[in-house]
Amino acid sequence: MASAGDEELAASKTDGFKVGEKKTVEEYAKLDQNDESLNRWKASLGISNSPILPVDPNDTRRCVIHSLALETPGRPDIVIDLSVPGALESLRSKPFAIKEGAKFRMKATFKVQHEVLSGLKFLQVVKRKGVRVSKDEEMLGSYAPNTQDKPIYEKKFAEDEAPSGMLMRGHYEAASRFVDDDDQEHLKFDWSFDIAKDWK
Predict the structure, then answer these.
(1) How many other CB atoms are found less than 10 A from the CB of residue 180?
(2) Which of 13, 38, 173, 186 is 20 to 30 A (C-alpha) from 141?
(3) Contact status, residue 152 vs residue 109, Cβ threshold 8 Å
(4) Could you tell me the end-to-end alpha-carbon distance of the chain, in angstroms, rounded to an integer?
(5) What is the mean pLDDT of residues 85-108?
């Protein structure tokens, strides 16, 4: 499958929603320090007194996805370390098997650098024999740059269930991307998997 078109992997829009004014982490930290609810919100973003991790000034990325994993109860995780050269390419060329009817969830580890990342989303289109069978969008949240106390973020996605039955078995291809509220793309990749009668 050629990579899904931009319109297929576009994030949904909420009428009337406008992305807020950009602020630095320091500006957020100083914002209404005596407002208890605002302080809870800042803490939920990871804004704290812990020092922000140093970042290479030449690396302009705001979000760096370190790994993707498939978690299935009772089985070892299938982990793709994205720091390994060729890792993304092997996702498409070397499909992995998922047992029909199995419950699973995806997990991502990532870091945020330079500024607050607002509204990180995961978008995915799955096709079988060129026909779209699903389109998913999952809001992952907003995050402050990583600190010494929180050097990496881990986000587990909602649990899913593999289709089952003889007609559902076979090869599937997917296109996925991570984007934020500013429509900035942080990672886009194609991958494939097989729904099988049993684990391989």
Answers:
(1) 20
(2) 173
(3) yes
(4) 23
(5) 91
Within 10 angstroms of residue 197's Cβ, the number of other Cβ atoms is 12
Tens-digit pLDDT profile for residues 28-62: 666 666 667 765 665 666 666 777 888 898 999 99
User: Are the C-beta atoms of residues 111 and 56 closer than 8 Å to each other?
Assistant: no
Average pLDDT on 121-137 reads 94
- The upper half-sphere exposure of residue 195, i.e. CA atoms within 13 Å in the direction of its Cβ, equals 21
Strands 185-196 and 96-99: parallel
Other beta carbons within 10 angstroms of residue 9's beta carbon come to: 19
Report the pLDDT value the prediction gives residue 2, as an integer from 0 to 100. 42
Distance CA 138, CA 80 (A): 20
How many CA atoms lie less than 13 Å away from 37 in the CB half-sphere?
A: 0
- Say which residues have a Cβ less than 8 Å from residue 33's Cβ, sequence separation at least 6: 39
Give the DSSP per-residue string, the chain: -PPPPTTTTPPP--TT--PPPP--HHHHHHTTTT-HHHHHHHHHHT--SSPBPP--TT---SEEEEEEEEE-TTS--EEEETTSTTHHHHHHHS-EEEETT-EEEEEEEEEE-SSPEEEEEEEEEEEETTEEEEEEEEEEEEEPPPBSS---EEEEPPPEE---SGGG-EEEEEEEEEE-TT--EEEEEEEEEEEESS--
Residue 63 contacts residue 120 (beta carbons within 8 Å): yes
